Amino acid sequence: MQITIEGLSQIYKNGKKALDDVSLQINHGMFGLLGPNGAGKTTLMRILVTLMKPTKGIVKVNELDLLKNRREVRAMLGYLPQEFKFFSKLTTWEFLDYVASLAGLTHGRQRKIAVDEMLENVGLFEARDRMANKLSGGMKRRLGIAQALIGDPKIIVVDEPTTGLDPEERIRFRNLLADLTQKDIIIILSTHIVSDISSTCTDMALLNNGELAYKGSPDDLVESVKGHTFRIEAIDSELEEIKQKYPVIATLPAENGWEVEIVADELKGFSGQEIEPNLEHAYVYFMDYKLHANPDEFRGNGGTK
Ligand code: ADP
Prior knowledge:
Bound molecules: adenosine-5'-diphosphate
CATH class of the largest domain: Alpha Beta
CATH topology of the largest domain: Rossmann fold
Oligomer: single chain
Helix content: 25-40%
Strand content: 25-35%
CATH superfamily of the largest domain: P-loop containing nucleotide triphosphate hydrolases
Largest sheet: 6 strands, mixed
Low-confidence stretches: 297-305
Distance between the termini: 24 Å
Number of domains: 3
Radius of gyration: 22 Å
Shape: globular
Mean pLDDT: 89
């Protein structure tokens, strides 16, 4: 499976440019789309799942043009939006059975097996006779996951994957998705939470203000900020100045004050030691520091634009 996005732009009726000339290739496996609120992630997701036509640009799924072959592409899609509404009159089982029939599972007995199995997978089998719209928040989210996965979709798009899930459910969901990557399918996770990306995705993009700020592997992104992450030992009175000068990742109490983890190109006026960067450091470096410190240079050399 492969999705090719070329020169994609979206301008809303009020003139807001939510996507600005985005080009991107997404191959099979788990792909993370990371960016702050308002970056344009939902807009991109909605275009990919054929809910919205872009102002400009091309999207291809394998050789199929998304705009010309909407029905074929739709048949390959599973989508879990941020907020999921359930019909008020269906039980959990009936709802999933209904979605399964829409997803092309027309054979009654096979569909029943698939629905039971999926409810089991997401831990809702015991709740199968409860009204779907009366489930708890976490359970609704799990039913949302089930409806996105039923019918063997080839492309699964998940908006804010960990919203509404407790830590245990997060792990279960992650494992569920990780199992799926054995197959030739694409899973796109769109999120503003860095840790949603780090443990699962082999490939990713950073979106900021409608523009693509980075595309590549999470490992390469982390590698690119080596030498730009530091730990400073600070006393109380220095803390404020540090916060003003640098984006702070963490502030930890230390023997004589604080240990402050920051990103920077160089340390000016403070002494500290370099530390190994992680994805969170890299995200903050690209989004808060590099972009704001020197936007022109960033656009020229930073990502892959
Ligand atoms: P994200 O999912 O990354 O938070 P969105 O795609 O929802 O970002 O939004 C990107 C930008 O487009 C934001 O500034 C948002 O306010 C704006 N936006 C989203 N939907 C609409 C709309 N229907 N009309 C006008 N502006 C919109």
